[in-house]
Specification:
The mean pLDDT is 93. The protein is built from eight helices and six strands. Helix 1 runs parallel beside helix 6, helix 5 packs antiparallel against helix 8 and helix 6 packs across helix 8. The protein is α/β, with parallel strands linked by helices and 191 residues long. It has one domain: Pyruvate-ferredoxin Oxidoreductase, domain 3, CATH 3.40.920.10. The protein has a six-stranded mixed sheet with strand order 2-3-1-4-5-6, sandwiched between helices. Helix 2 links the parallel strand 4 and strand 5. 40% of the residues are buried. Helices cover 39% and strands 23% of the residues.
């Protein structure tokens, strides 16, 4: 069984990223379960999705210490999910920082040195800078697909599986842009 957590804030497309992974796994014959937490997503709050796939999956919830992969679309959101990482898990983090509401109103400061702390405490931390990939893709809205492309380098699915899932789930006018974003994300990971 593989356990993947997608984490981000409202508007980043966390749920679509999880749906694409689910589509790929289902087409490959795996049993798939998913759980979403939206919270105050429409106001920039935390959003996360648990995706579990394998021969037989009984629960959609990933227990603490049970995630093989955590894909964080925002730096601080990765800190919210560290308890879920297995010892040898891979943590893929977008370098972008989005201020939560308490920081915006001046009640708190955005934590400093998150990237260094993650790299020091989790050997398999991969921090990616998606700025250029998003410029090349032509939209910041493709962040979720760029990050999915990063994750795809670690999973045993064919490129065609990913492309077919994107074509199935993305509106027709955005398919080419998302396919490009996916490839750009894959290119950010050097294995």
């Amino acid at each position: 069984m593989k356990n993947v957590i997608f984490a981000g804030v409202g508007g980043q497309g966390v749920i679509l990223a999880s749906k694409v992974l689910m589509e790929v796994a289902q087409k490959r014959g795996f049993d798939v379960k998913e759980s979403e937490v939206h919270g105050m997503a429409q106001r920039g709050g935390s959003v996360d999705c648990n995706v579990r796939y394998g021969t037989e999956v009984f629960s959609p919830l990933i227990p603490k210490g049970g995630a093989d992969y955590v894909v964080s679309l925002e730096m601080l959101e990765s800190m919210r999910k560290i308890d879920y990482l297995k010892k040898d898990a891979v943590l893929i983090v977008n370098r972008e920082q989005i201020n939560p509401a308490p920081v915006e109103i001046g009640a708190m400061k955005y934590p400093e040195d998150i990237e260094q702390w993650l790299k020091k405490n989790f050997a398999n931390t991969v921090v990616v800078d998606t700025t250029e990939a998003l410029k090349e893709a032509g939209t910041k809205k493709a962040l979720n697909i760029v990050m999915l492309g990063c994750l795809s380098k670690y999973l045993d699915f064919e490129m065609k599986d990913w492309e077919d899932a994107i074509k199935t789930l993305v509106k027709e006018q955005f398919i080419e842009q998302n396919l490009k974003a996916f490839t750009l994300g894959r290119d950010l990971i050097k294995l």
